[in-house]
Backbone:
């Protein structure tokens, strides 16, 4: 009997690194130094070198990374930020939490990233920034969005939560705009043992302000320059991330290999579109996401579930239609993506036979006229 296939299996990673992770965590516990200590400082240095940026600021989550980056740029009440609606809620929520107003724009149908042409149409006198999302592990077109930001005097921010290690024309995501926010939620390509995040930037003043905001707006104890947050990266999470960081490129390479197996097996199926990779992009496949006919998607997901294979829709409801926003805006590519996307299980150690099993079930579930 075939075993169940979840969306992600962290078991192989824990088996390979378990002893080293346990030693790292035990070392923190014995040290008695649990917040903003030597592991955080070392991780910030190591990850900045990996990303090719001047500064890395460890924070408590990917959401906090975006909120603090926006605040550190001076963006807040009265300002507008152009955002995609086809993304996880936190991308937009961060703009609201910073006090600014999100302005929704449509996506590029192939990469699911912010469409530069539609974004430009929505720029107004109060627009201060573009927030691009590297969705599913595919980097957005940093050249096009960067040129757009420069033309209009805007800051370009990266939501890189799903794309650690990805590259755009040889440059790592995280160093493509004024600042970037990363999430190290356990399911991410580089995952902690709980919530954790990071701000990456080449702007020293922005980094210094971010460090202040993550600790109650204070650079000096009991001297509070701004209303800030309790948003520190803790030592245990930093220690876990330091163990995993040297392995992330190999894991991402394996994810690309698994994705290639899926695409080979699924290409040519009626109505199914496998993920596109733009020229110059190095995808890290945080998710392997297909486009399928809307009327067939429920049947495909049901067939997979009956075969004990997980699938997921990232995302069925665009953020602009979430009850928290309920914005009236025309975003046809966003709506189309929400109706068609379906993500399949992926992790570095997923085996070829398991990929074939998923593909076979999916193929057999397609209607004769998709």
Residues:
């Amino acid at each position: 009997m075939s075993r169940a296939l979840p969306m992600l299996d962290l078991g192989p990673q824990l088996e390979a690194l378990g002893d080293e992770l346990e030693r790292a965590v035990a070392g923190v516990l014995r040290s008695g130094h649990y917040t903003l200590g030597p592991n955080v400082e070392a991780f910030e240095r190591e990850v900045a070198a990996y990303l090719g940026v001047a500064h890395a600021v460890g924070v408590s989550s990917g959401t906090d990374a975006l909120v603090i980056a926006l605040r550190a740029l001076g963006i807040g009440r009265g300002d507008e930020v152009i955002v995609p609606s086809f993304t996880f809620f936190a991308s937009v929520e961060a703009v609201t939490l910073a006090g600014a107003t999100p302005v929704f724009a449509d996506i590029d149908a192939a990469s699911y990233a912010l469409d530069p042409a539609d974004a430009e149409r929505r720029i107004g006198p109060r627009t201060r920034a573009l927030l691009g999302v590297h969705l599913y592990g595919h980097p957005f077109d940093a050249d096009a969005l960067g040129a757009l930001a420069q033309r209009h005097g805007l800051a370009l921010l990266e939501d890189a939560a799903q794309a650690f290690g990805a590259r755009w024309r040889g440059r790592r995501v995280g160093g493509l705009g004024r600042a970037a926010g990363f999430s190290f939620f356990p399911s991410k390509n580089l995952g902690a043992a709980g919530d954790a995040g990071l701000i990456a930037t080449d702007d020293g003043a922005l980094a210094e302000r971010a460090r202040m905001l993550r600790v109650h707006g204070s650079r000096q104890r009991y001297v509070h320059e701004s209303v800030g947050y309790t948003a520190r990266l803790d030592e245990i999470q930093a220690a876990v991330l330091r163990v995993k960081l040297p392995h992330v490129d190999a894991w991402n390479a394996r994810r690309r290999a698994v994705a290639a197996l899926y695409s080979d097996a699924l290409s040519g199926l009626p109505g199914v579109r496998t993920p596109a990779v733009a020229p110059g992009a190095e995808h890290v496949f945080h998710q392997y996401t297909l486009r399928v006919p809307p009327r067939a998607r429920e049947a495909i997901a049901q067939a997979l579930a009956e075969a004990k294979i997980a699938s997921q829709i990232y995302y069925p409801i665009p953020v602009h239609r979430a009850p928290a926003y309920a914005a009236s805006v025309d975003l046809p590519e966003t709506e189309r993506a929400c109706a068609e996307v379906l993500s399949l299980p992926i992790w570095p150690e997923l085996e070829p036979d398991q990929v074939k099993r998923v593909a076979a079930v999916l193929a057999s579930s397609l209607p004769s006229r998709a």
Summary: The radius of gyration is 21 Å. The CA atoms of residues 214 and 231 lie 5 Å apart.
